[in-house]
Design brief:
The chain is mostly beta strands. The chain has one helix and twelve strands; from the N terminus they run αββββββββββββ. The protein is globular. The termini are far apart.
């Protein structure tokens, strides 16, 4: 017979509440107005005036200075092929206030979604889709695809 102490019941209840909250949060609808077309910057994103940082590989993405017209502080690039995420799913940490660009290329049509920021981009098969935003909310945010339901990485903003 399993007997739980009051502390164990509290921890179990907290874990159950956390899982329930995550399940209830869910994803937005595919017709979400914040979903941008590939390489389109949402209107809420402001161009960065910060100097880009030197390239620094991370466990789940690459931070680099971008050669595009808009400077970003953190560039995160992900490729999906045969339902495999490259680089493998993990965490990427950015500082609050940084300009972030997430670029995803998938071998099948899908939709990119950044939880907490409610941003997204369509991902036509083989064509990179990007979202760019200012990381102005602290916390842990899941970045995923809608159709294939793949978690690409968790974004930590500190």
């Amino acid at each position: 017979m399993l007997v739980r102490t009051p502390a164990a019941r509290t921890a179990a209840g907290l874990a159950a509440a956390t899982v329930a909250a995550l399940l209830l949060a869910g994803c937005g609808q595919d017709d979400d107005p914040s979903v941008a077309t590939p390489s389109t910057v949402p209107t809420s994103a402001a161009p960065s005036s910060a100097t880009p940082t030197a390239p620094t590989p991370t466990a789940t993405g690459t931070s680099s200075a971008s050669a595009s017209t808009t400077a970003v502080d953190q560039q995160i690039t992900v490729t999906i092929a045969k339902k495999r995420v490259d680089p493998p799913t993990g965490r990427v940490t950015v500082s609050k206030g940084q300009s972030v660009r997430i670029t995803v290329t998938s071998d099948v049509s899908d939709e990119l979604h950044v939880h907490g920021y409610d941003l997204g981009a369509r991902l036509p098969a083989g064509t990179p889709g990007s979202v760019e935003f200012r990381a102005d909310k602290t916390g842990l945010f899941e970045v995923e695809t809608h159709e294939s339901e793949l978690v690409l990485f968790q974004l930590i903003v500190r």
